[in-house]
Amino acid sequence: MTNSGKGFRCLLAGAAIAAAMGFSEPARAEVSVSINLGPPPIVVAEPPALVMIPHSQVHYVPDPQIDVFFYGGYWWSPRGERWYRARAYNGPWGVIARGRVPRAVAYMPRDYRTRYEHERHIPYGQWKKDRSRWDRQNRKAHKRWEKDREQEWKRDRRDHGRDDRRGDRDHDRGDDRGGDHGRPGR
Questions:
Q1: For residue 151, how many C-alpha atoms fall within 13 Å in the half-sphere facing its CB?
Q2: Taking Cα atoms as reference points, which of 66, 28, 50 lies closest to residue 126?
Q3: Tell me, what's the pLDDT at 57?
């Protein structure tokens, strides 16, 4: 048994040396793992300043890097095709169905930052202290504001769709103007 043990070890050592020298074809294995975790997480490291949108109960974070709104006791953020919601500004954030996003937030004008940029920026501590009073004062005006934003959003979508269809017809006729017809911002 000692001779067979020594022979086996020599055979094993020889195979290892041959493999190391390249005498044997190395096994090729490829592994590809793809995990889609969605967009990067929403990280708000410190309490954000907020801007109260006049005549509404919607507030937004003025940081231009990410869209974050506060409305109805929740923080809301669109990320690509998905919406996220959290109870606190620093999360945890969870995906929410688009149909469950309040109209006031979902129909926010695309140009809300420029439209409301001159409104007062409120430090988080002051906002948290006075928010419920401001919301009560704006309750009636908010309903009108919400309806106006919804109508504006739908009109813009309808007009944008009309421009797209017209652009397709113009393209078919050889018109090189495309769908924007010289209008800025489209």
A1: 6
A2: 50
A3: 87
SS in 3 state form for 61-74? CCCCCCCCEEECCE
Please count the CA atoms within 13 angstroms of the CA of 6 that sit on its side-chain side.
Answer: 2
Give the position of tokens 């090729």. Answer: 28
**Inter-CA distances, 44 with 18, 118, 135, Å:** 57, 23, 23
Evaluate if pTM is beyond 0.70: no
pLDDT in tens, 50-79: 998 888 889 999 988 889 999 999 999 998
The one-character DSSP state at 79 is E
> 147 to each of 69, 102, 154, 160, how far by Cα in Å?
18, 12, 11, 20
DSSP 55: T
Burial class (CB in 10 A: 0-12, 13-18, 19+), 73: exposed
Kindly indicate the confidence band of residue 181, based on its pLDDT and cuts at 50, 70 and 90: very low
